[in-house]
Write a structure and sequence with these properties.
binds NADP nicotinamide-adenine-dinucleotide phosphate, single chain, 282 residues, five-stranded parallel beta sheet, 10 helices, three-stranded parallel beta sheet, Rossmann fold, alpha/beta, 15% strand
């Protein structure tokens, strides 16, 4: 079990989702994701296509609310407020980055945290830090926990090192790991002697956005490694790669997520888990 397949985790989550969606529909609720998209950025369109396909597989509806890329701040806020008040839409994904005429902070603040499916609002962040159960964590950060749980990797009382402290991944994943009773060390670009820190961990979560920058010198036998990085390959080849040099690390450790096919494969499905949770809350 050296490679921890994200696809396997996503399939298991989808099976569970199908049952939950069926039960909700039997009670008259059709779980629905709203997507707010400005313009037709290729990355947004690709994500939207993937989300629609996965949603269809499990029976979740998708409503896309579009604005021209050049739309104003007021026009975007109006759409966000409309979706906030639309009871048929249970959760919302606002595509980012937003165009430069938009104040992203104000746009995020306009979104109702209870409908914020990817933990982008301050309300969702507060929910993670206060354990209040309000809002949802960022999908990718929570996918890390779901992968570890799926492969029955013990977290309680274990030492976990997180490489990266961004608000999207490093910080929220650290809080989620604490909630699982792990002892968490958060490292960043100013941390000294990273290999020594990672060697001491039972689990290492790597989220630096530095292609193939971490090799076997950073790991030892028995560890689990979750590679969150998604980067262009530095050698000019097509496709994406992680932060970890998987080929040389896989034979050393107990388990590692591949890139692609690891965390990224779960993120999309986890978004749908949030929609179903939001629909259950009503
Ligand atoms: P980010 O905002 O750029 O943050 C990177 C973090 O890594 C920062 O905290 C930075 O430290 C730290 N870091 C950078 N170089 C370092 C080094 N040499 N040693 C130690 N720490 C270092 O990136 P992000 O948004 O968190 O994303 C991280 C990666 O995850 C990217 O590859 C991104 O594409 C990927 N990602 C994947 C998914 C998915 O679904 N799998 C989703 C989102 C993002 P400082 O704070 O000191 O600068």
């Amino acid at each position: 079990m050296a490679l921890l397949s994200g696809k396997e985790v996503a399939e298991a989550l989808k099976e569970q989702l199908k049952k939950e969606v069926e039960a909700l529909k039997a009670k008259g609720t059709n779980p629905t994701l709203g997507i707010i998209r400005m313009g037709e950025e290729p990355g947004d369109l690709a994500y939207e296509k993937g989300a629609k396909k996965s949603a269809e597989e499990v029976g979740i509806g998708v409503n896309v609310f579009t604005l021209p890329r050049e739309a104003s701040q007021d026009e975007l806020i109006k759409v966000i407020q409309k979706v906030n008040g639309d009871k048929s839409v249970h959760g919302v994904l606002l595509f980012q980055p937003l165009p430069k005429q938009i104040d992203a902070f104000k746009a995020r603040a306009a979104l109702d945290p209870s409908k914020d499916m990817d933990g982008i609002t301050d309300g969702s962040m507060a929910g993670i830090y206060s354990d209040s159960g309000k809002g949802f964590p960022p999908c990718t950060a929570e996918s890390v926990i779901k992968i570890l749980k799926h492969f029955k990797v013990e977290l309680s009382g274990k030492n976990v090192v997180v490489l990266g402290r961004s608000t999207v991944i490093g910080k929220p994943v650290s809080m989620l790991l604490l909630k699982e009773n792990a002892t968490v060390t958060v490292c960043h670009s100013k941390t000294k002697d990273l290999p020594k820190k990672t060697q001491e961990a039972d689990v290492v979560v790597v989220a630096m956005g530095r292609a193939w920058s971490v090799g076997k010198e950073s790991f030892r036998a028995g560890q689990y490694v979750i590679d969150v990085g998604v980067n262009a390959k530095p050698n000019g080849e097509k496709g994406t790669c992680g932060d970890v040099r998987t080929e040389e690390v896989e034979p050393v450790v107990a388990g590692i997520t591949p890139v692609p096919g690891g965390v990224g494969s779960v993120t999309n499905t986890n978004l749908l888990c949030h929609v179903v949770e939001a629909a259950k809350k009503g």
